[in-house]
Amino acid sequence: MMESTWSAVDAYVAGRLAHEDAVLTAAVRASEDAGLPPIQVSPPQGKLLYLLARSIGARRILEFGTLGAYSTIWLARALSEDGRLITLEADPRYADVARANISRAGLEGVVDLRVGAALDLLPDLREERPFDFTFIDADKENSPAYFAWALDHSRPGALIVADNVVREGALADPASDDPKVLAQRQLHETVATEDRVSATTIQTVGGKGYDGFMVALVER
Ligand SMILES: C[S@@+](CC[C@H](N)C(=O)[O-])C[C@H]1O[C@@H](n2cnc3c(N)ncnc32)[C@H](O)[C@@H]1O
Fold first, then answer.
1. pLDDT (0 to 100) of residue 114
2. What are the Cα distances from residue 46, in Å, to 19, 20, 154?
3. What is the pLDDT of the chain when averaged over all its residues?
4. What is the pLDDT of residue 218?
């Protein structure tokens, strides 16, 4: 199967079920114009995040990795009334672009964008807990640490979603010594023995290539 087919199906789905409105399109364009890497989630993936967050009535969302705030906008739109989303971004230049995109989306009163390395920012977030929904999409080497923190600061019934865990199938390659792959293996091994969560990983193909999401439900 060709990657061009995956992209065509993404476009088909986006055109019918995961429509990207003018605000989201403008966010992508502004990010491109500012030279940000095009590594945001696809429209169908953004819609999936939106649906998952909405289906649990999320009021407090935490996001690791803002980039230009594309996934942030999808997620913030899923918040129930009086909801709040905190998103963490290490690169101040990306954060500037994200801030403008969040403002254009009319979400500046809802989204709290914090700039810095996520691990440094986390201690200040303790007062914001418990979170209902966490999206992990920053530096992949730290995904296990972000997951552990999110689990300790989530309510029962919360969801934690981690992106890019399959890494073109390298997740299942024991010979891989790529630190990003090793981190995803560590994440899976930890979650496998963690009785506070029930989780699965779904492989994804699309305009963003071959990868996958881990979705974990916090049981207690
Ligand atoms: C894949 S992109 C996020 C894409 C975004 N979630 C979306 O779908 O629109 C990863 C982002 O994480 C940021 N990042 C990398 N290391 C980080 C860290 N230690 N703390 C916070 N953000 C980090 C990168 O600068 C980049 O913007």
1. 98
2. 10, 9, 21
3. 97
4. 98
Q: Pick the atom of ligand 1 nearest to 63's CA.
A: 6
Partnered with residue 162 across adjacent β-strands are 136, 214
The amino acid that residue 18 corresponds to is: A
Instruction: Please indicate whether residue 138, judged by its CB atom, sits closer than 6 Å to ligand 1.
Output: yes
The partner residues of 61 in beta bridges, in order of sequence, read 85, 133
Which of the residue ranges 1-10, 77-86, 107-116, 155-164 would you say has the lowest mean pLDDT? Answer: 1-10
**pLDDT exceeds cutoff 80 at 1:** no
Q: What is the mean pLDDT of residues 90-100?
A: 98
What is the residue with the minimal CA distance to atom 16 of ligand 1?
139
- Give 50-105 as a DSSP string: HHHHHHTT-SEEEEE--TTSHHHHHHHTTPPTT-EEEEEES-HHHHHHHHHHHHHT
d(CA 97, CA 34): 7
Give me ligand 1 centre to Cα 32, in Å: 15
Mean pLDDT to the nearest integer, 52-75: 98
In ligand 1, the atom with minimum distance to the C-alpha of 163 is 1
Minimal CA–CA distance to 163: which of 29, 9, 33, 41? 41
Spell out the alpha helix ranges (H) of 131-217: 143-152, 179-192
Q: Report the distance separating Cα 220 and Cα 57, nearest Å.
A: 18
The answer, yes or no, to whether any atom of ligand 1 lies below 6 A from the CB of 141, is: no
